[in-house]
Amino acid sequence: MSIQNLSEHLEIPYATVHREVGRLLEAGLITEEKVGNYRLIGPNKQSPYYRPLSELLEIASGPVPLLREALEGVDGVQEVVIFGSWAHRALGHRGPAPEDIDVLVIGQPDVGKVYAACSRVTKKLGWPVNPTIMSVDEWHEDTPFLRNVRAGGVLNVIDS
């Protein structure tokens, strides 16, 4: 990615991004390649800091992008939401730190593939990911469980 693209994507002034890129280059955390008039930057995968920093970023960004990536390719998945304590905290409600991630997978997916995908996310994040699978018709029902899920708030991972 070029410094200009990064500046536009982050909506941060070019001068600020340019200065920080210089610091990251000096620290050996990123690499630079000149292509024409562009300076393309990327992670320095040879740095001893690469793995711990990438793991920290995965945890800090939360489970949404990891779950999206893991479940988008599973046939039959129409919608995915995070509910429970993780969603509740992410939506700004107070309470103890979540101990797991409750995920509602809506559609007619292969159960084994859903559990395998959630297992991969569990390994990356270090928090158990607990999928509940239901059909679209079940999702639209008015059950005590779903009233509780909706009342607590949900984070959309994949929209239909």
TrEMBL record:
SUPFAM superfamilies: Nucleotidyltransferase (SSF81301), Winged helix' DNA-binding domain (SSF46785). CDD domains: HTH_ARSR. InterPro entries: ArsR-like_HTH, NT_sf, WH-like_DNA-bd_sf, WH_DNA-bd_sf. This is ArsR family transcriptional regulator. It comes from mine drainage metagenome. The lineage of its organism: unclassified sequences, metagenomes, ecological metagenomes.
